[in-house]
Amino acid sequence: MSVFSHDHEQVVFCHDRPTGLRAIVAIYSTALGPALGGTRFYPYASEEEALVDVLNLSRSMAYKNALAGLDHGGGKAVIWGDPARDKSEPLLRAYGRFVQSLGGRYVTACDVGTYVQDMDVVARECDFVTGRSPENGGAGDSSILTAWGVFQGMRACAEHRWGSATLRDRRVGIAGVGKVGRHLLEHLLEDGASVVVTDVSAPARAAVRVTHPQVDQVDDVDALVRSDLDVYAPCALGGALSDEVVRLLRASVVCGAANNQLAHPGVEKLLEDRGILYAPDYVVNSGGVIQVADEIRGYVPERARAKATRIFDTTRQIFALAAEEGVPPAVAADRIAERRMAEVGRLRGILLP
Ligand SMILES: NC(=O)c1ccc[n+]([C@@H]2O[C@H](COP(=O)([O-])OP(=O)(O)OC[C@H]3O[C@@H](n4cnc5c(N)ncnc54)[C@H](O)[C@@H]3O)[C@@H](O)[C@H]2O)c1
């Protein structure tokens, strides 16, 4: 596999044998500013798998950051290893020194396998870290704002589909009641929706049973997808929208927090053909990156929340462009992001003496 067959600006391999650190930082674009994206700590089967993941993830971040209206390009990092076994203070600090060596071209944050406490450690060696704990000047858990943003996206879907920006009396199915799913559940109940959930984790389901006994539960995602829903909200892992799921789905709207929901390119067309309105994942789940970007400037919760609230307008704008250009919303979202990267990125060509 050749990195040069992709459009990335820079890909850096970082190796520190004594700590066992093997990391790859990929910067897709800095057209809008320093590349921003989290560090995924994951036991990949091979170096190639890690590389493919970081190339895909960093590209997605460029689009997500562009559509969230941030002055950040797209980047991402992966640490190849088992976080439960390999994560240590020296490894994270070694990683921080490599990120520092990029001089701010890349700003890191949390992702799968890394947590706010880890970013606190990385920050002891590195100035270009966000997503830290409140005790260390950070904004803390980003899932609250992510859920708020997904809810705003879902309101825009409701308006487009049913003429009114509310989920009142709609049946919403949430797959995955982890950090984001649980907060989303609260917003939906407050808005008057009826909610059904599922999760592979028994403790996650038990927690919902205790806090929200009125919420229905089903055994698995398959049962959820087959049930009588208005909205399906994937909030677990990527690849939730396979050909099979799209074929079985009874909901007419899909809007959830999970990253990379489309199992393969072309699923957006299948959704369109079945008349299912799909809110592109990277648009509606950008509340988290909005929060960590805000933290870089000194976190102001009201400012970050106001920005995440605008996900409602962005989602609307995408549906409008999709209708105008006769393309699925996922394609319309990409077009808006590419336009912003080109038009705003071009301004760097105006010399500031
Ligand atoms: N946390 C954020 O700020 C944020 C931001 C953007 C995107 N996301 C994405 O949103 C999704 C959820 O994030 P989170 O922070 O809530 O993660 P989480 O790990 O707290 O929650 C995920 C939940 O999904 C459940 N799950 C996993 N596989 C499942 C399956 N096959 N069927 C049913 N349930 C399953 C898990 O048991 C867990 O309870 C992820 O895809 C994440 O990448 C999160």
Short note summarizing the structure:
The chain is α/β, with parallel strands linked by helices and 353 residues long.
Structure explained in plain terms:
- This protein is an alpha/beta fold.
- The protein contains 15 helices and twelve strands.
- Strand 11, helix 10 and strand 12 form a beta-alpha-beta unit.
- It is globular.
- It starts with 9 loop residues before the first strand and ends in an 8-residue tail after the last helix.
- The mean pLDDT is 96.
- It binds nicotinamide-adenine-dinucleotide.
- Nicotinamide-adenine-dinucleotide binds next to helix 5 and helix 6.
Topology:
Elements: E1 10-16, E2 21-29, E3 35-36, E4 39-42, H1 47-67, E5 73-80, H2 83-86, H3 89-101, E6 106-107, H4 116-122, H5 143-162, E7 171-175, H6 179-190, E8 194-198, H7 202-211, E9 216-217, H8 221-226, E10 231-234, H9 243-248, E11 253-254, H10 267-273, E12 277-278, H11 281-284, H12 287-296, H13 301-309, H14 311-325, H15 329-345
Helix pairs in contact: 1-15, 3-4, 5-6, 5-12, 5-13, 5-14, 12-13, 14-15
